[in-house]
Amino acid sequence: MAAILDSVKTQANDIREAAEAGYARYRANGNLSTAGILQGLAKTYLGAKSQMDALRESATTGATANLNALMTSVFGINDLAGSDPSNRAAVSMSYRDALDRAQTCETAEDALALLARANTVGDELLARAVASVAWSNGAFGAWADVLNTYAATRPAAERALGQLYELNTKKLFAVDVFAFLLVKPIELTNFADFQIEGLADAGGSAAS
Amino acid sequence: MRQTTTKATPDPLTAYLEAARDQALATVRALLVDDGPAQPGYPRETQIENHLKTAEAAARRLDLFASGAAL
Fold first, then answer.
1. Is the ipTM of this complex over 0.85?
2. Mapping DSSP to helix (H, G, I), strand (E, B) and coil, where does residue A153 land?
């Protein structure tokens, strides 16, 4: 499970607060019968549940997309390959070769030496390939030195790499796991969700 | 010198779960002790069980939050 952004937690809290406010309005509405209040609570609960499900879905998709974008930003070759198809194909092929070469490094020291050579001759593809291999090897210890050396002269990659580290080391707390939790209003505790749907669909008769 | 203590404000999800737990327990108490109104069509015992389950689930999650357990 990816770390949940604070903005997403705030949205989940907003949904819960809006639902509670909606329940309070129905409970306080003296014009409604008990059945009418139950119907209102059921509609409000189902609406909030639907919003929460959508938020959970978009947050999960968004977190994965964000991670992929960061990986591309640090180790990808979009900026070098351009949009010309033939150029892209040539750069992609060269990058695959560079990755094959970088993967022959058995130690971080080998990788550092290869990175130094790539930097000296301006072989950006090889430098990027070495960084990619360092990340794949755990990015800790001496492999972290490889990444730091790579990022030292590439400010954009340094920023994205910092975010990648943060996402990978951020602790996930129990409170995050339940970020999308929604408790049924007390009046609906005895009902299963399919019964709540039936209550919400009861039509105007129940709310009279 | 007068000392003041400040209680940390719980995060919104904790406050939400505490309210759900307290409300469920208050309902159980009403059903048990005060012989309060039960929902028609459901045995009182079943309703008490259901509210207890809600309270228990909330309490267990609150315990987890308080423990600071990280994955």
1. no
2. coil
